[in-house]
């Protein structure tokens, strides 16, 4: 998962996009949202657009965005059985696939 936040709101209705890429199929989901999204709102986006259509992922690799590192997300991952791994800072091979999509 990766947050793309460099968009001006005048150009489009959303200022931020949550980008998720399946490493196996290389398919991408780009979910429009706002910069002020809370962890709960991000979780609802994740649940409604990923889990409900694709199933529960075994592992998620994410940057260290506070929306993904909160106690809420940690508890959610534990409940659904998903392992969370964080990308290494300044190491584009880890989450570069999602970054290249923008």
UniProtKB/TrEMBL annotation:
This is Integrase catalytic domain-containing protein. Residues 1-102 form the Integrase catalytic domain. GO terms for cellular component: nucleus. GO terms for molecular function: RNA binding. Keywords: RNA-binding. One of its GO terms (biological process) is DNA integration. It comes from Austropuccinia psidii MF-1.
């Amino acid at each position: 998962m990766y947050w793309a936040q460099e968009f001006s709101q005048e150009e489009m209705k959303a200022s931020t996009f949550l980008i998720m890429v399946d490493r196996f199929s290389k398919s991408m989901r780009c979910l429009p949202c706002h910069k002020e999204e809370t962890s709960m709102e991000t979780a609802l986006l994740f649940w409604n657009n990923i889990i409900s259509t694709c199933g529960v992922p075994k592992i998620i690799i994410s940057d260290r965005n506070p929306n993904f590192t909160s106690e809420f997300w940690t508890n959610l991952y534990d409940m659904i059985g998903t392992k969370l791994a964080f990308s290494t800072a300044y190491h584009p091979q880890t989450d570069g696939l999602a970054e290249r999509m923008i």
